[in-house]
Amino acid sequence: MDGEILMGKNSGSKTLTLMWRFMTKPQRIGAICPSSRWLCRAMVNAIELESAEAVAELGPGTGVITREILRTKPREAQFFAVELDPRMCAGFQSSFPKVKTFQASAAELTRLCQEAEVARLDAVISGLPWAAFPESLQRAILDAILANLKPDGYFTTFAYLQGLMLPAGRRFRQLLHHYFAEVRTSRVVWANLPPAIVYRCHGPRKHNHNRENDV
């Protein structure tokens, strides 16, 4: 695999970039430092990524989870990333120039799949700060994910321990059970700052919505 895609460039400045964007845009950037390799590995584990045909990453940030995705997915699998923050998006595109990247909201996933010529996704991997989102945005993004996942597709994301007790964090966990037939929670990844857990969701439930009107 292309080393430039896999490893990225200018990795020494990524932590400082993420910290600065966290301080200036906390509603968009949910982490003060990049996820550890242990959390990244937990994110791609047990979601059948090795046999996926199409994958999307929401909120890639500096690209630490992206590297694990690229290591794990088949080389020929379609893959694109969605990053809303313009500076983070520009930095990500500089580090991963061969990854198709959209500077857009994750709630626009239907349109982005169409632009990327992806029919349905086998997996959606998210680094979004769900506990910082209002319910309306949580639902809008989950609706878009549900509309574009295959019937046996996976959705995986993580949550920091301190956010699990927040109202938005509790609400998000309840929404996952509403949207997916199976929701599994990993063991705590203590080797991360802050410690986190991973949600692995499988089997999107059928909702009464029109895929063309999800955005």
Order of helices and strands: HHHEHEHEHEHEHEE
* Helix vs. strand class: alpha/beta
| DSSP E strands, number | 7
By oligomeric state, this entry counts as single chain
Q: Describe it for me?
A:
The protein is α/β, with parallel strands linked by helices. The chain is 36% helix and 21% strand. The chain contains eight helices and seven strands; from the N terminus they run αααβαβαβαβαβαββ. It has helices at 3-7, 14-24, 37-44, 64-72, 86-95, 109-115, 135-148, 167-179; strands at 54-58, 78-82, 100-102, 121-126, 149-160, 180-185, 196-204. The chain has a seven-stranded mixed beta sheet with strand order 3-2-1-4-5-7-6, sandwiched between helices. Strand 2, helix 5 (86-95) and strand 3 (100-102) form a beta-alpha-beta unit. Helix 7 (135-148) packs parallel to helix 8 (167-179). Mean pLDDT is 85; it is low at 1-30 and 208-215.
Secondary-structure topology with pairs:
Elements: H1 3-7, H2 14-24, H3 37-44, E1 54-58, H4 64-72, E2 78-82, H5 86-95, E3 100-102, H6 109-115, E4 121-126, H7 135-148, E5 149-160, H8 167-179, E6 180-185, E7 196-204
Parallel strand pairs: 1-2, 1-4, 2-3, 4-5
Antiparallel strand pairs: 5-7, 6-7
